[in-house]
Design a protein that fits this description.
It is built from one helix and 13 strands, in the order ββββββββββαβββ. It is mainly beta. Strands 1, 3, 4, 5, 8, 11 and 13 form a seven-stranded antiparallel β-sheet that branches. Strands 6-12-9-10 form a four-stranded antiparallel β-sheet, with no helix packed on it. Strand 9 and strand 10 form a beta hairpin.
Length: about 180
Amino acid sequence: MRLQTRAVAYLLLLATSGAARAEDAPTLKRGISSDAVQFETAYSPDSQAVTMTFSNLLIHTETGRGTLPIDRTKKFIYVLEPESSKEVYITQDFRGFVSTSGSGSASLVIHSGGTTTVVDLQKAIEEADGNYNTRIETRVPAGHPLQTTVFLLVDRLPGDDDSSGHLTVDSIDAVVNPLPAEIR
């Protein structure tokens, strides 16, 4: 397995089935680049899966009384390049944590393959102690890359001492598969 390292991060190895890869099975090219976001990538031995583990894809507001509204944003863009002579199906799983208090709020928006998803973080706060896991599935034509933009936003109103927002993306897993017969 080839490992590409960016700055200081920890490694999450992706478990694979260990089955031999068929000659015509799609794979992912190596080449995820970053923009000041620190992460490591780990590819499966058959290059059909990759895990990006982040050390600093997070944002938060300050707490304490202020006179102006506070907001923070961060974005991360990456490109997956499937190597296949046929249309493929890419599944991406986004995992992280969210916390808000008082007038604080948080939003996670993912734009991938022309489709925009707003993650239901309120559900994560209410039902999963702030942990979220979101899956996005995208069809990718043969010979085309898949660009994904991850946008994080936290904010809070002024004057509320206990208000805050905190949002992290811990990891993104991506798997490329042949297009299922029932979808073709």
